Structures are given as structure tokens and as C-alpha cells.
Amino acid sequence: MRESSNISNDLSALTVAILVGGLGTRLRSIVPDRPKVLAPVRQKPFLAYLLDQLANCGASHVVLCCGYLGGQVRESFGETYRHLQLVYSQEETPLGTAGALRKAVPEFQSDLILVMNGDSYCQADLLSFYHWHDQNSARASLLLVKVSDTSSYGRVELGIENRVGYFEEKNVSSAAGWINAGIYLIQKELLLSVSSDRAVSLEKDMLPIWAEQGFLYGFKSEALFIDIGTPGSYQLAEGLLPE
Predict the structure, then answer these.
(1) Percentage of the chain with pLDDT > 90?
(2) Which pTM was predicted?
(3) Which of 213, 234, 44, 21 is nearest to 116 (CA)?
(4) Where do the domains of the chain lie?
(5) Residue 183: phi, psi to the nearest 5?
(6) Strands lying side by side in the sheet with 15-19
(7) What residues contact 135, with CB distance under 8 A and at least 6 apart?
């Protein structure tokens, strides 16, 4: 680990990309008429909680990677939210999470991108994650949170110097462990290596390759984590998300 470079004490230097294009099929019994990032929690779209978190960390440029019903996201949030500038990258056919990021590359204004899943919230210290990534001279890092039962998410095991060793599939183990919180720091050059002519998954296709190549790191946080992908977890969000 090297000494930290002179990086900012906020997120203003980074482009943030939020993946908001999921089909949300498991949530349609409760939220049938909108993308799940617009599912209301305390009368506020779920995505607004992520944008508030970013605004509070000093972020300024956010690219929303849209897919299913993406026009509703633009109609709901427009071009700005608080002091955040919002830019939209709309996929015409499903590209997968990595494919959506590859399509959005022309909108990225920084060489390092903070990537977030739009259907989960983690109350981790994003600035500490940013500084830790820089200190490790990492090309890609993912934020890990500890849960009591990893069977719904899959487990992430770390090796030497916090490099990701391997990913365990869902439903393999129900024990406590570390899971992928859906928050990443990724060099733009890696996203340019993603195929642009087919659907590619960040989680299933790219992360295992980067881990095998030895340059994917894992940052551990014991922060609150909420995933609204299922009706049960969505209903829990009402009582867990910050006011």
C-alpha cells in the first residue's frame, strides 16, 4: 500500500454512474407501473435516497444508466437534483450491468468511476472507500457488507492484501459473511474493455475475470445495507432508510 495521493476530500472529482435499468420483475406485484428505483419509500422515490447520499458527499456529476421505463426516471428527476448534475444514458435493448456502463462511457468525465446499483442502499462511508481505493492503487474495488445470511446474495471471499479471491454463488451457504453491496470504484479503461455488441453482466462476467487477474480489491464495511429487490425487503426499507 502506498501513501495516499492528494485526492479530494469529497466526491466532486468523480463521475458517479447509477444502474437504474433493471426490469424489477420480482417487485411488480407491489410496484407494477414504474421502474423499481422509483418505488416510493416514505412518499419519496428510492433513488432519491442514493442521490441524497451522493450530494451529502460532495458529488456533482451523476450518470443514470437507464433501461426499462427509463423515461419515467428522467421525468421524475430532470437534469438536476440538489446540486447534482444528472445525465441519462438510455439503452435500447437490455445490455446487462457491464454493458450499460460500457454504453455510458462517453458521458463519464473522470478516469475513475463510482458505480452504484440503483436498487440497493448502503450507508457506508463512501469517502473512506474512495481514499482506501486510492491508497491501494487499485484498478477496481468493490464495497462489501456483512450479513447474517449470505444465501440470498452469494459470498465474497478475500485473499492476500484484500484482493478478491473468489465469489460464491447464491444459495450455497446460509452462514454469516461478506457480500457485494453493489458499490464499486472502477477505472474507465476497464469499462472500455467490456464488449459493446452484446449483453454483459458486471457481477457474473467481469468481476470474476478481474478477480482472477488479481486487481479487484474488496473494502469491508459493517454499514446498514438495504436491497429492495423483493417485496419483503422493499417493505423493510420503510423503517430502515434514513429520514
Answers:
(1) 79
(2) 0.95
(3) 21
(4) 15-142+182-240
(5) -130, 130
(6) 80-81, 84-90, 61-66, 15-19, 112-117, 177-187, 140-147, 216-221
(7) 1, 2, 3, 4
Of 3-17, 73-87, 100-114, 135-149, the range with the lowest mean pLDDT is: 3-17
pLDDT digits (tens, 9 = 90+) for 161-220: 999 999 998 878 788 999 999 999 999 999 999 999 899 999 999 999 999 999 999 999
Closest by CA position to 48, among listed 81, 80, 22, 78: 81
Q: What is the rounded average pLDDT of the residues 109-121?
A: 97
In the chain the first and final C-alpha atoms are separated, in Å, by 37
- Looking at every residue in the chain, the average pLDDT score rounds to 93
Q: Which CATH superfamily hosts domain 15-142+182-240?
A: Spore Coat Polysaccharide Biosynthesis Protein SpsA; Chain A (3.90.550.10)
Q: Quote the cell numbers at residue 101.
A: 456502463
What is the spatial distance between Cα 236 and Cα 233, in angstroms, rounded to a whole number? 5
Q: In this structure, what DSSP letter does residue 148 have?
A: S
